[in-house]
Amino acid sequence: MSRLVYVLNGPNLNLLGKRQPHIYGHETLADVERDCRALAEELGLQIRFHQSNREYELIDWIHEARETAAGIVINPAAFTHTSVAILDALNTFEGSVIEVHISNVHKREEFRHHSFVSKRADGVIAGFGTQGYLLGLRRVANLLDEKKDSA
Ligand code: DQA
Q1: Which residues are listed under the site Transition state stabilizer (predicted)?
Q2: Is 102 annotated as contributing to ligand binding?
Q3: Which residue among 20, 73, 105 has the greatest number of ligand 1 atoms within 8 angstroms of its CB, and so is best to mutate?
Q4: Domain span at residue 66?
Q5: Measured between alpha carbons, how far is residue 9 from residues 1, 75, 149 in Å?
Q6: Fewest CB atoms less than 10 Å from the CB: which of 53, 63, 76, 115?
Q7: Is 104 annotated as a binding residue?
Q8: Strand partners of residue 75
Q9: What's the domain count of the chain?
Q10: pLDDT over 80 (residue 86)
């Protein structure tokens, strides 16, 4: 079975490290990618790591993942709260979906409390900083191992 995982990042996350560091921290997205790649190697996962400010690109990567991947770890950023289209795309994906937010969205403005993506996600991680991505990868690896053991 494929051990490919897509790690997808939504709008403004290209500015991670520079953008509101009191909320999102000082690590850049390149740091996150480096840490994800190191952990993926340890867990025997392959990863494709992407960021876009455009909703359709995220949707296209989810469609691509449908064909090849076992899991998606996604921080949809502001699209979390607005995008039925990303929810619909994720609903076409059969593998594991983990939703990640760097900040604790529930401690923040009311409009961040609702997530369309959570209607599909198998797990949601919020408020663990950029470590959330690593926890998400570990969860996908565990789910894959569980599936393998029960096969
Ligand atoms: C975020 C939280 C969202 O509400 C926000 O729009 C983001 C980042 C997070 O990682 O904490 O851009 O997804």
Answers
A1: 19
A2: yes
A3: 105
A4: 4-150
A5: 25, 5, 31
A6: 63
A7: no
A8: 9
A9: 1
A10: yes
Question: What angle is formed at CA 40 by the lines to CA 53 and CA 7, rounded to 5 degrees?
Answer: 15
Q: Which member of 22, 24, 26, 113 is catalytic?
A: 24
Residues 40/135, Cβ–Cβ less than 8 Å: no
Q: Is 24 a catalytic residue?
A: yes
Ligand 1 cavity residues, CB under 6 Å: 12, 75, 77-78, 80, 101-103, 105, 112
Q: How confident is the model at residue 54 (pLDDT cuts 50, 70, 90)?
A: very high
- CATH number for 102: 3.40.50.9100
Q: Distance (Å, rounded) from C-alpha 31 to C-alpha 4?
A: 20
3-state helix, strand, coil in the chain (%, to 5): 50, 20, 30
CA of 5 to the centre of ligand 1 (A): 21
Tens of pLDDT along 1-31? Answer: 689 999 999 999 999 999 999 999 999 999 9
